[in-house]
Specification:
InterPro entries: FA_desaturase_dom, Fatty_acid_desaturase. With 383 residues, the chain is an all-alpha fold. Helix content is 62%, strand content 2%. The radius of gyration is 22 Å and the shape is globular.
Length: 383
């Protein structure tokens, strides 16, 4: 029970869950040729952009070829990671029975192996979303993004840590996916961890060889500018992915939970936790595609195996459900969401932060502004 849900009875929550189940069934039972054509068209577009980028960078000594080639390659990498790789690995397209576009066979253009990412993301994060002690995505082991995380002096520098993480995001995620802290806690030995380390090393080596050696070498005298183009394309992809993911998970209004929340949690209560623990980005259809439709983070967390092209169609219905049940539906333009996240990270680099964030979260609730103001009124009495 949180301020967001204290007005709901158990029966209310179960009714809400039942309505979401009906919505899910309606979509999943209607999947067909149009959806299959959509993902195949996105894959063709991505491969065309990548091929164009690689070819143009062969002549990277010519500035227009360098600029257009780098931009094309960056767009290709964003599409592959966000709208294709992320969603295929969630099993969103397994219903097509296509042996290539399948969660068991796809290997994405990313340092993380598909298998390790599916363990930390598909299972741990989506099962235990925003639960302290269970969801390792809360701060990715390097950032304090919630006041309930104990403050340590190292967080004084987290504004800079976060900027560095954005630039090398795929490498940071790869290191995170290895779960080295299991060895530190004594849950696994280095010998048990070694197969994962070797698999990640092989994948990282292939990625580095492809982007920073083989393709630049093919450009001959354009080696250096082609290498720079590859580095910039990866940098753009990393910063974009970081921004999208942080906008969906760490805005001030998004809630976190204690482990006790998981005790006897029903499917309907899990749905509610997903809605309270996610936020959307408002924007154009192009923005939605370039975010992998993770701009519909709330809908994605409700139905992670639903094809991403359907999130936009159900978003108005999910928003209406939140309205009818008096729940917040966190959404805003990207500049506002990301700006708020960066300000939050800066504030939480210092101790405290509980009261300020609590007030912001209360203001985001239906009729919550009065509750937020009551905190200020109660402060002198408490003192």
């Amino acid at each position: 029970m949180t301020p967001s849900t204290e007005h709901l009875s158990t029966e209310d929550i179960e009714r809400l869950g039942a309505e979401l189940e009906v919505l899910r069934d309606q979509v999943m039972s209607s999947l067909g040729d149009d959806d299959a054509r959509y993902i195949r068209r996105v894959i063709r577009t991505q491969r065309g952009l990548e091929a164009a980028g690689r070819v143009l960078l062969l002549g990277a000594l010519f500035p227009p070829a360098f600029l257009v080639g780098t931009a094309s390659l960056a767009l290709a990498k964003i599409l592959e990671n966000m709208e294709i790789g992320h969603n295929v690995l969630h099993g969103q397209w397994d219903w097509m029975r296509d042996p290539e576009i399948n969660s068991t066979t796809w290997e994405w253009d990313h340092v993380s192996t598909a298998r390790s990412w599916q363990q930390t993301h598909n299972y741990l994060h989506h099962t235990y979303t925003n639960v302290h002690g269970k969801d390792r995505d809360i701060g990715y082991n390097v950032l304090r993004v919630d006041p309930d995380q104990p403050w340590e002096p190292i967080y004084l520098f987290q504004t800079f840590t976060n900027a560095g993480l954005a630039m090398i995001f795929e490498w940071g995620i790869a290191a995170f996916d290895l779960e080295i802290d299991q060895v530190q806690r004594g849950e696994k030995t280095w010998a048990e961890k070694m197969p994962e380390l070797k698999a990640m090393g092989r994948k990282a080596g292939k990625q580095a060889l492809k982007d920073f050696v083989v393709f630049p070498a093919l450009s001959g005298p354009s080696f250096v500018p082609a290498l720079v183009g590859g580095l910039l394309a990866n940098l753009v992809r990393n910063v974009w992915s970081h921004a999208v993911i942080f906008c969906g998970h760490f805005p001030v209004e998004v809630e976190t939970f204690d482990e006790e929340r998981l005790e006897n949690e029903t499917q309907a209560e899990w749905y509610v936790r997903q809605m309270l623990g996610s936020a959307n980005i408002e924007g154009s259809k192009l923005l939605h595609i370039m975010t992998g439709n993770l701009s519909h983070q709330i809908e994605h967390h409700l139905f992670p195996d639903m094809p991403s092209n359907r999130y936009g169609t159900i978003a108005p219905q999910v928003r209406d459900l939140c309205r009818r049940y008096g729940l917040p539906y966190h959404a805003g333009p990207m500049w506002k969401q990301y700006g708020g996240v960066l300000a939050k990270i800066a504030r939480l680099s210092f101790p405290g932060g509980h009261k300020g964030l609590a007030k912001r979260r209360l203001r985001a609730l239906p009729f919550g502004r009065r509750r937020a103001e009551s905190l200020d009124a109660a402060a002198p009495a408490a003192a």
